[in-house]
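Bug #77: duplicate submission created two jobs. Keeping one. Sequence:
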Amino acid sequence: MNRKSFKIFIAATAAVVLAACGERNSWTVDGRIEGADNKTLILEASSNGRWYPLDTVTLTGGGNFKFTHEAAGYPDIYRLRLNDRSLYFPIDSIETVTVVARADAFDTNYTLSGSTHAVQLMTVEQKLQDAASHLGAATATDSILKRELAGELLNDPSGIVAYYIINKKIGGRSLFDPANKGDLRIIGAVANAFHERRPGDPRTAYLTQLFTSNHANNRPAVSSAATDTIMAAAIGVLDIQLYDDKGTLHSLAEECSKGHPVILNFTSYTAEASPAVNLALNKVYEQYASRGLQIFQVAFDADEYTWKQSARNLPWITVYNSAHDGTEALMKYNVGSLPATFVIGADGEIKSRVDNLAELNAAVARAF
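Kept job's structure:
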């Protein structure tokens, strides 16, 4: 290769590298809007509740579109606007989110794909739309709906969808009203998670202010400990009623009403990790059982006989979720994989989801 050719090669390589770097620092939303020929589609972002345009495109035959924008450096919610209809989607980092919709039902009949949060936000919106079709103006105060959404928050309180939910308004009314003590607890859980996991996110200061300015009692809004964690109460339990190996029906809600902490554990005894999980649970149980700690363990084994053989040797409550019982218990707590462990406080409210069992002891100690 001669010098001139080498220079051309280097220049071309540099261009490819720069282009690749540019792509790595941007996100994309693309897709198809049926029946929207010659209509203008607007991509919008928000700042302190004010929406402003980032880009526009005139849709041609087929309704295909694609917007690419520089990554903000933190997750955010964006929207597409077609006439007077808006469709919201989340961006975590530099992914591509795909939207498929129809012009005549742009904000009600659509699919989002491309990321876990995109699918989650779509599911939340569909749930809200279904509720609104039945409840109308009462949607914002429906306790069952809010419990289900609280489950979404519990699964990922520092996620952008959690932020979206607590700021969602239905008919001009906040779905989670900071003036309501129960709603404020949920807002506090999200504020706490952002404070711990997203200290540099611009929404963290807003969430902290929202929580602390509406705090209803005399407890300090921010701990004086070195961790500087917002003291936010957690979320109430969703009941699970299943039978143990002796045929006795157990209720999680009833157990949690007895005034002692409860560890809620979803597991499968035939899973490879099961012995280690039960060993960790037993260690904590032996330490705190004398103070009233109970474990409510829900097993999802395919073989009921094998489950019974294991369950009968355990000192805590063990119930069986058969194939006939379905996945309702998992859905209530947004459990996508086993094992999953939650700590419920003596006041009957979920205090934490413990992903690292090495932290279980400390979580239980805080639950008394």
